[in-house]
Design a protein that fits this description.
- The complex is a heterodimer of chains A (214) and B (97).
- Chain A has 214 residues and is mainly β.
- Helix content of chain A is 7%, strand content 38%.
- Chain A is built from two helices and 14 strands, in the order E-E-E-E-E-E-E-H-E-E-H-E-E-E-E-E.
- In chain A, the strands form four sheets. In chain A, strands 6, 8, 9, 11, 12 and 13 form a six-stranded antiparallel β-sheet that branches. A four-stranded antiparallel β-sheet of chain A has the order 5-14-7-10, with no helix packed on it.
- Chain B is elongated.
- The longest helix of chain B has 22 residues, at 27-48.
- In chain B, helix 1 packs across helix 2.
- Chain B has helices at residues 27-48, 62-80, 86-96; strands at residues 3-7, 13-18, 23-25.
- In chain B, strands 2-1-3 form a three-stranded antiparallel β-sheet.
- Chain B has 97 residues and is α+β, with helices and mostly antiparallel strands.
- The chains are: A mainly beta (214), B alpha+beta (97).
- Chain A binds chain B through residues 67-78, 80-84, 86, 104, 106-109, 112, 180, 187, 189-191, 195, 199-203, and chain B through 6, 13-22, 34, 37-38, 40-42, 44-45, 48-49, 68, 71-72, 75-76, 78-80, 82-83.
- Strand 5 (65-73) of chain A pairs antiparallel with strand 2 (13-18) of chain B.
C-alpha cells in the first residue's frame, strides 16, 4: 500500500493528498511517478493520443459514427450543402475541414479569410466552427497540411468551436429542411459581415463524427 | 467511392465532390470536371493578375472567365469600402475643416 503523507515532529514532510494524478492513464507511457494515494504507477498514455493541445478528447468516448467526403467548388462564392440522411440520426461531436490545395490569397477578401464550418440539422441547432487568421491557415494548410479540428465545446474568443442554439445564435440558423449540413467558406470584413468564399478549384475535405442513437 | 456533382436552383454546376450529396456521376466524369474546374480557376487567376489577356483564353470560355474576373474585381472594391458611423463622419469632416 502506498504512503501519500509523511508527518514528522509535527511537520508535514511530504503530502501527495492534494495531487491530481490518480491513474496510469493520466501519465505519459513509460513515465514513473507517485499517484495521490502514494502508489507508484507507470504511465500508459500514448503520446499524441490525448495530449492534443486544445482538443478535448474526454467527451468523445461514445462516438460510433463517422463519415467523410470532399468537394471542389466551381466559383469562389459557394456554400456547399452536403446531404446525408444519416446525419439526422447522430449528434455531431467533431467536424474536421481541411484542404491540401494551395490557397492563393491574392485579393483583399482573401487576406481577411477565415475558414468556417457551418453545420445545421433539422432540430435547429447549429454547430459552427472556424479558425482565425488567414496567415496561419495558409501556412498550416498549404505547407504543413494540418487538419483543423473542432469539437463541440464552446470556447469563445479563440480558435475553436462554438455550439450555437436558438438562445445564443450569433448568426441566423440555417433553415435547412433536408437531412444534411451546410459548409460555408467565409470571409470577414471590417463591417462584421460574412461572405461565402471558398476558393474555386481548391479541393476541401471533411470528416464528421458523432454519436448515433441505436 | 461515390462521386457527385452539385447544381444550384438554376442548374448551374457549383461543385463536384466525393461522398454524400449532389447527383451521382461516374469517376471519369468527375475527373473531367475536376480538370476543367481547375483549368478555369487558373485562367481566372492569370487574367486577374495580368499574366494573360482574354485572347489567351479558349474562345468558348472567354465570357465566363471574364465575368468571374470582373466579379472578383468588384468584390475587391466592396472589401475596400467601409461603413462609418455619423459620428465618425462628422469627426472626419471637422478635421478637414
Amino acid at each position: 500500500m502506498g504512503v501519500n503523507r509523511v508527518d514528522f515532529g509535527g511537520n508535514t514532510l511530504i503530502d501527495l493528498t492534494g495531487d491530481t494524478l490518480e491513474s496510469a492513464e493520466q501519465l505519459l507511457k513509460g513515465i514513473i511517478a507517485h499517484a495521490k494515494d502514494g502508489s507508484v504507477i507507470t504511465g500508459l498514455l500514448e503520446a499524441g493520443g490525448g495530449g492534443g493541445g486544445d482538443f478535448d478528447f474526454s467527451n468523445l468516448a461514445d462516438i460510433n459514427f463517422a463519415n467523410s467526403g470532399s468537394f471542389t467548388p466551381t466559383s469562389n462564392a459557394a456554400s456547399i450543402f452536403i446531404t446525408d440522411p444519416e446525419f439526422l440520426k447522430i449528434t455531431p461531436k467533431i467536424f474536421i475541414l481541411y484542404t491540401e490545395s494551395v490557397l492563393t490569397g491574392t485579393d483583399s477578401y482573401r487576406t481577411l479569410l477565415t475558414l468556417q464550418a457551418h453545420i445545421s440539422d433539422n432540430t435547429g441547432f447549429v454547430f459552427f466552427a472556424w479558425t482565425k487568421g488567414f496567415t496561419s491557415i495558409l501556412s498550416s494548410v498549404s505547407v504543413n497540411k494540418k487538419c483543423f479540428k473542432f469539437n463541440a465545446t464552446p470556447s469563445y474568443g479563440s480558435d475553436g468551436a462554438y455550439l450555437f442554439t436558438s438562445s445564443n445564435a450569433r448568426l441566423t440558423p440555417c433553415s435547412i429542411t433536408t437531412a444534411g449540413f451546410l459548409i460555408r467558406g467565409c470571409s470577414y470584413n471590417s463591417n462584421s459581415t460574412y461572405t461565402s468564399y471558398f476558393e474555386e478549384g481548391a479541393t476541401y475535405k471533411y470528416i464528421y463524427m458523432g454519436v448515433k442513437n441505436q | 467511392m461515390r462521386y457527385y456533382a452539385q447544381y444550384n436552383d438554376t442548374g448551374k454546376l457549383i461543385a463536384i465532390g466525393t461522398g454524400s450529396g449532389g447527383t451521382e456521376i461516374t469517376e471519369s466524369e468527375y475527373n473531367r470536371l475536376l480538370a476543367e474546374i481547375r483549368e478555369k480557376a487558373a485562367l481566372v487567376n492569370q487574367l486577374y493578375n495580368g499574366e494573360i489577356t482574354i485572347a489567351d483564353v479558349p474562345e468558348g470560355w472567354r465570357e465566363e472567365i471574364q465575368r468571374r474576373v470582373d466579379e472578383r474585381i468588384a468584390a475587391d472594391g466592396e472589401a475596400a469600402e467601409q461603413d462609418i458611423s455619423g459620428e465618425e463622419f462628422l469627426s472626419m469632416v471637422q478635421e478637414v475643416l
